[in-house]
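Can anyone check this?
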Amino acid sequence: MRELREWLARQLHVDVTQLTLHPASKDASFRQYYRLLLDGRSLIVMDASAERASCKPFVEIARLLASADLNVPIILAEDLARGWLLLSDLGPQTYLDVLDERNADALFESAIDALVRLQRIECPATLPRYDAALLRRELELFPEWYLQRHLGVTIDAELRAQLDVLFTLLIESALAQPQVLVHRDYMPRNLMLSETSPGVLDFQDAVCGPISYDPVCLFKDAFISWPESLVEQWLRVYWQRARAVGLPVPEDFAWFYMHCDLMGAQRHLKVIGIFARINYRDGKPKYLQDVPRFFAYLRNVCARRPELESLELLLDKLSLDKLSLDKNSPERA
């Protein structure tokens, strides 16, 4: 921390004693964020020294998004070798902090407009692809960290075969969709209330991938749930805006909605695995409390998608809904 403060003092041309850093947010990764108040000005310091590789993509994607007039942090100073960034402050409140049934339509309307602008950006050739290998690696987090590590389930040959059938279905569906720039965590916690809302954060893991991924991420959040009827309504609003600007969504909304459901199933399984991994590997147990939300999402799509019969059978066989309620407790860290 001393070296970071000294670096900041040099960038800002002030004495180090003038700098006071306050925690700005809690992150599921190893990155740390601080708010720095100086002469009435608020700045953000990102300390990614524990995972320095995330700094360069952050800088590159920030500049890419800014080129499309998206409201992202301005990079004021950088030391990529040490994993430090000095950024403009987009404000202290996330969409998640304020979202409720009274303001959701208005906030999501602005989020949809920003998402459509993001998806119209041409994917750089250097951007990673959401290919079959990456989709499968993400899905494998579910059996590895949730089924085996968290629930103690043995992955025998029969269960492995069921998982393979399901994973192949979800991967093929994702790859069959038009591919666009994907934020990959476009959710209310990463959208900020600011002068030009939304401010967009946490985009360093962006890839070129399925067009339905970010809309599903926005409306089927890890930390807040909405009635299925509202989710369908907002997805339709997104689909209409996307069509209006020439994004390659299907002409038939029903077809797009089906892709959203299958894409959501891939993401929900991945996130369940990630939350278990964060608990056991990183010692951050609180995320497990939100796992039942994702099983509810999965149950909802299984009820209307015959394509997901293999997933429904898996949920029934393992009684995952009940087990998740019994075992997703912070005390299991």
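Reply from J.R.: I decoded it. DSSP finds twelve helices and nine strands in the chain.
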